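Hi R.,

Here's the input for the phosphoenolpyruvate complex you asked about:
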Amino acid sequence: MKLKGIGAAEGIASAKMWRMATLDLTVQEEVGRDSETETQRFTDAQKTAIAELTVLYDQTAERDEKNAMIFDIHRMMVEDLDFAEGVQDMLSTGCSAEWAVQETGKMLSDMFAALDDETMRARAADVKDVSGRIIRILKGIPEAAAMPLEPVIVAAEDLLPRQTVKLDKRYVAGCVTKMGSVTSHSAILARSMGIGCVVGMADDFDKLPEACILAIDGTTGEVIADPTPEEAAEYAAKRTAFLEEQGTLQNYFGREAITKSGHKCLVCANIGSVKDAEVAKAAGADGVGLFRSEFLYLDSPDFPSEEKQFAAYRRVLEIFAPNPVVVRTLDLGSDKQAPYFNIPDEENPAMGYRAIRICLDRPEIFRTQLRALLRASVYGKLDIMFPMITSVGQVRRIKEIVEECKAELKTEGIPFADDIELGVMIETPAAAIMSDEIAKEVDFFSIGTNDLTQYTMAADRMNVRVNNIFNSEDPAILRLIEITARNAHAAGIWVGVCGEAGANTRLTSFFMKNKLDELSVAATSILKVRKAICESEE
Ligand code: PEP
Ligand code: MG
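And here is the predicted structure with phosphoenolpyruvate in place:
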């Protein structure tokens, strides 16, 4: 059966489909239940939850004792007296065990969320997790099946970044999703992993059989369920041709990216982890143009400590030293949510509480990251970049906080480099329009075409239905890029592109005409972009 989606990450694969479960845990209020029966159901569910958490604890502790602690905390929460009493009180009114657990869980998590202490506030998400687990057990839904230990094509309604970072990458041959678009973060992750990915299958996703073999083409967006022998052979041939084409690009490995008229441009990598840095280095990146540091937060059960962050930044800087590494400070919110941040649901999260807005509002989180970065700076060439800037005032405030962190470290006798450049992402129309003023405050710009397109075209980057309007090649976007590049160069600072458009070779000549100094792309696109720059006349 031939199906269609949007090609989001190049790569051709054929493997068994593995569905990532999405659970429906909504509970409707019911009355007139027998409280004794419901109490028994609750007690049984508590026991099952404890058994599940014990297995999870043991499995995780084998690899990572510290991260396993979270399951121990959850176990204690299941047995917590306040929780059990709250449920009991509700059950005596004749409601169902599911409803009692949901409502008591909500009440407790709201209570935690209102506390001053950051660590206690983070417990709100744990309470939600624990009550969700008990409700799932009460509804008789088994725990999501673990990934099989063989290559599979992951099929999911939507792959949230939080789920994607938890996949065992060794066994992911490709992925297909119902929702999402080319610049959704799951597609970005797929590109960094070098696997084919088809997103936005919409209604075609619902036609996928329960169990099947999938053949996918991440360039065209074609998906075949249970291919015929002829189709399977066609895909195998396509895959060979694709790999051969990748092979010819190797001629550009280590070659300077310079246009025919002599403009030099760095080709750097977008990364999200230390592992990505290793891959990018091996793929021949000139440096890192965008380290999406939020993936350290998404992969963690709680706020990553200064030490944990320091270790990751230091390692990435060492891998690339003496070449530059641009680390972007936390860009959480919108589609990237970590439960322990307790960001309330928003009507419009892409335009809501995210990125630098959170960091300026909760400076303790920002300072921990800045201190870790500054401390790591002596291990390579660090540049720090700030996301979602909309005003000159924000930039000035950020610079003050950076100075305060530097002063703190100086007092503590902790060294940091003196050549750290500070830059901003130009990813809102406001920043592009004000780029002449902002340029006076910073050392560089990096244009985030994903968000710049979303906000300029008023088209949600995650919404399949407006995918045709979300177009980074639209003249409106190109004009904002021209303005930004002109203002950067007039102020004597460098400017690059780190959004997905950087890897669109139809735009390479336009970028070179505007004398962009750097293009930062997924590791898998580095050679393709190097070739396009070398072939450009500009
Ligand atoms: C962008 O918006 O273009 C960008 C690079 O940032 P992100 O994709 O992480 O939002
Ligand atoms: Mg962005």
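One thing worth noting: The pocket of phosphoenolpyruvate (ligand 1) is lined by residues 290, 292, 331, 427, 448-451, 498-499 (CB under 6 Å).

Cheers,
M.
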